[in-house]
Task: inverse folding
């Protein structure tokens, strides 16, 4: 079986599980809605303040949702000896990483879309105008978050204090992604062209690439018994 | 061996103190406050060396699976965190009279703080995984990712904002400081490196004892 085919099977399996249980998605959508209310209560109804803080809030909410969602994909594998099944899969374990990464990417992309929609409605911001450049930023940011989140999620799923450890490992590493996406989102929402923030996009792309390569190469050491 | 390193480090630190306070001239602009640099700069250089060692030892462990590499990575990671902490604290003490504030979100302060947080997470991971071999594998992966992330963090924070003066020693051009100050700095750097080696030897021995108790 080819590398891509094995990655696809992992992705398909997890999508099917998610479609039938709807465990993660429903909870994450609800969590996004809750965050929105919390942000509003914390900052007050002042429109100016909210709009100024919007890019930061958006990505903060996104990363918080990621903390809840990303660690989960490997928890399901702990039941019914699925972990051993993954271990016994012949061939490069990087394919399993890529498959899981794709699931996490889709999950987080769905959360991003919902979060954006909710922001648009509740905070009354016009996002349509900047949707195309915004989706580029969201794509790059989601890959970075999912790449590290998948690797660390696999690790922490085997640790007793996983809810504690996962954010402690993930958050400091994600600082460049947060900075880059917030700055780029800020510019895009002000109506600037993507070329104005090309250096941030390049940085995000470089970060994505580095995380992906490290993830693919080191995943076999994480997956071991 | 370790004991001798300890004495050498102590001697070096004494010499460094003498150089920093006696030999090096008072800074024309900042006055005596500037002398904290003799702790600040060697600390961060030592921390960089320690985190570099974590990367090398992590790679070594994943390739060979020898426990020795893992012990080395663990010891170097702990010492690196200590020296990064020392850098942040000494910088803060210097910043209060010079910049008028304990902390600003300047690029190099921020990236050093992030470096600190990444490796504190690394140590927490080591503490939280019960199985020694599994902990070693996970820590090695985090050690590698943490190290390759450093340049990305560096540029992201640099573009975010900057206020810190440009680096003084590790630049291709000739150092823009007087030779007496540079010499005092070098002596302190050597002393800190000796201290690092001493800590490393002590921590490795301690780690071996810990494993004996566990076994």
Result:
């Amino acid at each position: 079986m080819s590398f891509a085919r094995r990655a696809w099977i992992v992705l398909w399996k997890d999508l099917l599980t998610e479609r039938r249980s709807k465990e993660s998605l429903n909870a994450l959508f609800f969590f996004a809605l809750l965050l929105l209310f919390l942000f509003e209560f914390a900052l007050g109804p002042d429109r100016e303040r909210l709009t100024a803080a919007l890019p930061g809030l958006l990505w903060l909410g996104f990363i918080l949702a990621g903390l809840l969602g990303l660690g989960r994909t490997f928890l399901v594998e702990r039941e019914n000896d699925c972990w051993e099944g993954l271990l016994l899969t012949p061939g490069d374990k990087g394919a399993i990483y890529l498959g899981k990464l794709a699931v996490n990417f889709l999950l987080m992309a769905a959360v991003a879309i919902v979060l954006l929609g909710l922001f648009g409605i509740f905070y009354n911001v016009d996002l349509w105008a900047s949707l195309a450049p915004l989706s580029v930023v969201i794509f790059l940011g989601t890959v970075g978050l999912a790449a590290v989140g998948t690797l660390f999620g696999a690790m922490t799923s085997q640790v007793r204090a996983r809810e504690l450890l996962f954010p402690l490992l993930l958050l400091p590493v994600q600082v460049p992604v947060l900075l880059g996406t917030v700055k780029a989102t800020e510019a895009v929402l002000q109506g600037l062209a993507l070329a104005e923030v090309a250096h941030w996009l390049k940085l995000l792309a470089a970060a994505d690439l580095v995380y992906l390569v490290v993830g693919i190469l080191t995943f076999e050491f994480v997956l071991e018994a | 061996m370790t004991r001798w390193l300890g004495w050498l480090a102590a001697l070096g630190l004494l010499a460094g103190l003498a150089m920093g306070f006696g030999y090096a001239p008072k800074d024309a602009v900042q006055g005596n406050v500037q002398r904290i640099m003799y702790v600040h700069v060697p600390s961060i250089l030592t921390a960089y060396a320690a985190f570099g060692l974590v990367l090398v030892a992590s790679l070594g462990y994943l390739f060979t699976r020898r426990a020795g590499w893992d012990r080395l990575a663990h010891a170097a990671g702990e010492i690196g965190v200590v020296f990064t902490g020392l850098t942040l604290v000494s910088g803060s003490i210097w910043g209060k009279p010079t910049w008028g504030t304990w902390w600003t979100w300047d690029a190099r302060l921020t990236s050093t703080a992030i470096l600190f947080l990444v490796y504190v997470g690394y140590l927490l991971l080591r503490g939280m995984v019960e199985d020694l071999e599994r902990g070693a594998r996970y820590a090695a992966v985090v050690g590698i990712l943490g190290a390759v992330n450093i340049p990305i963090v560096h540029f992201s924070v640099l573009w975010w904002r900057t206020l810190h003066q440009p680096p003084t020693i590790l630049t291709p051009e000739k150092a823009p400081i007087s030779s007496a100050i540079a010499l005092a700095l070098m002596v302190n750097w050597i002393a800190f490196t000796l201290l690092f080696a001493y800590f490393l030897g002590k921590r490795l021995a301690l780690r071996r004892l810990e494993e004996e108790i566990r076994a």
